[in-house]
Amino acid sequence: MGSVAHVLQSTLFGLYRRLFARPACYYLNRLLFELSLRGLGLLNSEDEQASGELFLIDQLLARLPAPVVLDVGANQGRYSTMVRQRIPSSTVWAFEPHPATFRHLAVASKTFAFQAVPCGMGNTAGSFNLYDRQSGDGTEHASLYRDVIEGIHARDAVSVEVVVTTIDSFMAEQGISEIGLLKIDTEGHEYQVLQGAQKTLEAGKIAMIQIEFNEMNTVSRVFCRDFIELLKGYAPFRLLPVSLLPLTPYRPLRHELFGFQNLVFIRNNLLPQLWPEAD
Asked: Which of 42, 124, 162, 199 has its CA 20 to 30 A from that of 22?
């Protein structure tokens, strides 16, 4: 049966190629490609429902009792606010290193009762330059990589010195025993944040990880494969508006797509509880 399906698929691919692999069909092929990307969980950035973030909070995170959430790269606190509103029993720590942006985050933290921390996360503690658009007073695109601003966004960059720590250090300092969700949106620096959480990961103290993966990773030179290999004790998924798309087995053509998407990693021993559909 499998050989028959393979022959039919090959025939269909060959027929499509003969009919549509030509310059005159470029815009049609590009439209189909763009539509397929959205069906695969990419470029759905219009709002939290389209991105699947509401689904993750309501259908997965809510299954954990009184979850602790670390929102790394919290910006002005939109995600932290959503978690607190939808899961009142949650404890949320929101990290934002940009001084101007942090002022907004601090206001939101008082209104919605979460903890705002004026620092970033990485694989080592210290002071680093954070780059942002020259015309912006703390934008959501601020990054530890100058080329994110000047290359990806094609804007003049200005830098500000910020404090960076590690997940491992913060966990020890605050006496946090378990993280329900580690959410990371650091404009290309997500892999380094996870490197700074190795002790916590090895101890099995993080239930779920949500990572924004996009064109910024071409600057930091980090692939989807790097995350999968680093998080071997986790099942990898791409977040869809109302579901999860499994990312196994690994295929470079289908995984290394550098456009907005959320990668979700669920600790293997928690799959039956958090996402029984995986079975």
From this structure: 42
Contact by Cβ (8 Å): 260, 214: yes
Report field, pTM of the whole predicted structure over 0.70: yes
User: How, if at all, do strands 206-213 and 261-267 pair?
Assistant: antiparallel
* CATH number attached to the domain at 47-122+167-278: 3.40.50.150
Give backbone dihedrals phi and psi of 115, rounded to 5 degrees, phi first. Answer: -95, 120
- Rounded Cα–Cα distance for residues 105 and 114 (Å): 10
pLDDT in tens, 15-69: 999 999 999 999 999 999 999 999 999 999 999 999 999 999 999 999 999 999 9
- What Å distances lie between residue 116 and 60, 75, 99, 108, CA to CA? 24, 10, 12, 9
- Rounded CA-CA distance 109/122 in Å is 23
- Amino acid letter for position 1: M
Distance, in Å, from the CA atom of 167 to the CA atom of 232, rounded to the nearest integer, reads 18
Residues 171, 179: Cα–Cα separation, whole Å = 9
Residues in the chain: 279
